[in-house]
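To: structure subgroup
Subject: Chain for Friday's discussion

All,

I'm putting the inputs and outputs inline so they're searchable in the archive.
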Amino acid sequence: MFSIGDKIVYPVHGAGVVEGIEEKEVLGEKKSYYILRLWGDEMRIMIPQDQAYHAGLRKVGDEELLERALLILQEDVDDVALNWNKRLRQNMDKIKSGNICQVAEVVRNLMVRDLRKGLANGEKKLLDSAKQILVSEIAVSQNLEEEQAYDLVDSCFHLDC
């Protein structure tokens, strides 16, 4: 499914690269694992190859998909009057989906809500996490430095994209 050097996304953690494929024995069972190096904090994760689909691993989006995600930052906000608990669950579901466009919606909605009304601590953490996931995929796919990718997201939010 994936090869060494492939740029991938692991939902909730962000983008990275398949650094290796190794066979390991865990609990008496031999399996092949993808060794993933995630963007930013250089975290390494092992995912069994046979569980990659269920874990939500996918290749980073192509340029068209990423452009669509950046345009979402400029769209009107889905400002539904949900209580914070329902809103938090809805946003977590979008992030867990692994869909970069849904992650962009979460970033946009929370950034606007923060400017208008402020965010509770849980939502501030969720905004930081969603923004990091969005930025990581952009950085990995476009070979950008962290600051460049954050600047790109911020400029799109301010309609300068």
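Points worth raising on Friday:
Residues 7-59 form a domain with the Thrombin, subunit H fold (CATH 2.40.10.170).
The chain has two domains: 7-59, 63-157.

D.
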